[in-house]
């Protein structure tokens, strides 16, 4: 058996246990009591009897792929794997987490294979996933936000070239797998997101010193959603944790994150209970990511920072913010409901597109929804707007 076996508590939800097994590619999970005593052992077949094994099989196959071409071939099965999970009744939030974990597995195996081809790394490094993948809230249409940090002198040009080559190979292979990179440059091939550790640390200090400076919130928001998925080395591993701790302790940064959470507002135009965009190329349609999920994600990120929570996923961030008194209990609950509602609609529409042989996107024509669903969506957006108005008042009062 594996050393340092992954385990779970006796009171853990089944969903949590399944994601833990999927993340670590294990089929057996010891269950331990609070005193550390092993009280049982569950297998994936115990928990997946009614849900199918497609994501687990795919995750394991990627982990042992012999070369990059095999990873790319296996990646083509991901959409069907998600369809299978959805057909088996898996909850949308867990389908999103499953997709994120499998993308992480692709990155990890691509890195391993690329290092084998390039030779040993000249310095310890860590590869980060950011954004929705880092939060484990990605969708079939989601791109991959990535970053790279390594432990070497700023003037070590040879190491920088090696890391640049590594990032280029992995990002290109990931694109071949059907996972595109962020269109705005949040990718490990961009020098802004691929730096030696000391450069990252200086940049974090600069962003904390002036949170409202150009792009400072963009960078810090990305790091706050970050997760290390591969690499080794105490320096790179510590860099992310140090940055997050510094941001949570910095009152100016927390307040800036609060103001940032007011930047994206749900649409307020209502025509016969339809919530739509009235101008631009998407006229008559709703961008579920930008106008539906982003406002809640931003509010949750602020709440977690203010509560000094280490949570990365949006639902847990909301719970932690409520527990710390940063958000009112009722507001955290309604934000969680809206997040779950919009996530379900977004996933449903994207999976429908995959079934129809189309490219999934984030746009929804509200006229395709039932009157009940339209009202629920409208009321949810109004509730998010009310929370934003409340937060605006809190920030204005210096709370």
Structural shape:
globular
CATH architecture of the domain at 250-399: Up-down Bundle
Uncertain segments are none
- End-to-end separation in angstroms reads 52 Å
> How is the biggest beta sheet arranged?
4 strands, mixed
pLDDT averaged residue by residue: 87
Structure class: alpha+beta
Strand order across the biggest sheet? 6-5-4-7
Strand and helix order: EHEEHHHHHEHEHEHHEHHEEEHHHEH
Can you count the helices?
16
The level-1 CATH class of the domain at 250-399: Mainly Alpha
Count of strand segments: 11
Using only CA atoms, what is the Rg?
Answer: 21 Å
Kindly state the percentage of residues in helix: 55-70%
Residue share in β-strands: 5-15%
CATH topology of the domain at 250-399, by name, is Four Helix Bundle (Hemerythrin (Met), subunit A)
Write a structural description:
By secondary structure, the protein is of the alpha+beta class. It has a domain at 250-399: Four Helix Bundle (Hemerythrin (Met), subunit A) (Up-down Bundle), CATH 1.20.120. It is 57% helix and 11% strand. The chain is built from 16 helices and eleven strands. The strands form four sheets. A four-stranded mixed β-sheet has the order 6-5-4-7, sandwiched between helices. A three-stranded mixed β-sheet has the order 1-2-3. Strands 8-9 form a two-stranded antiparallel sheet. Helix 3 (54-63) packs parallel to helix 6 and helix 13 (288-307) runs antiparallel to helix 15 (329-355). The longest helix is centred in the first third of the chain and has 27 residues, at 92-118. The chain is globular, with a radius of gyration of 21 Å.
